[in-house]
Specification:
This protein is mainly alpha-helical. The chain has three helices and no strands. The longest helix has 25 residues, at 24-48.
Length: 79
């Protein structure tokens, strides 16, 4: 069951790795789109779960994927 929630996230991470070899404009566009897609997927997954008042393992997985995406985006903008 969790694989149907995590598959889109892993596809986004693979896309970010593959696009890191392209030009700056393409990288930034894909990074911003990937972060937005990950956030929307996180919201979709959170809404599919029953109403609970604590953080689940899926939330931590999504949080751990936001960090590399944000770092990569910031690194490319600064350098």
């Amino acid at each position: 069951m969790p694989e149907r929630y995590l598959l889109p996230l892993f596809i986004l991470l693979i896309l970010i790795i593959l696009v890191s070899f392209t030009d700056f404009t393409t990288r930034i566009s894909v990074y911003v789109g990937a972060i937005l897609a990950a956030v929307f997927e996180h919201v979709r997954v959170s809404n599919a779960l029953p109403g609970i008042g604590y953080t689940t393992a899926l939330d931590y997985i999504f949080y751990s994927c936001y960090l590399p995406q944000g770092y990569r985006h910031t690194y490319d903008v600064v350098n």
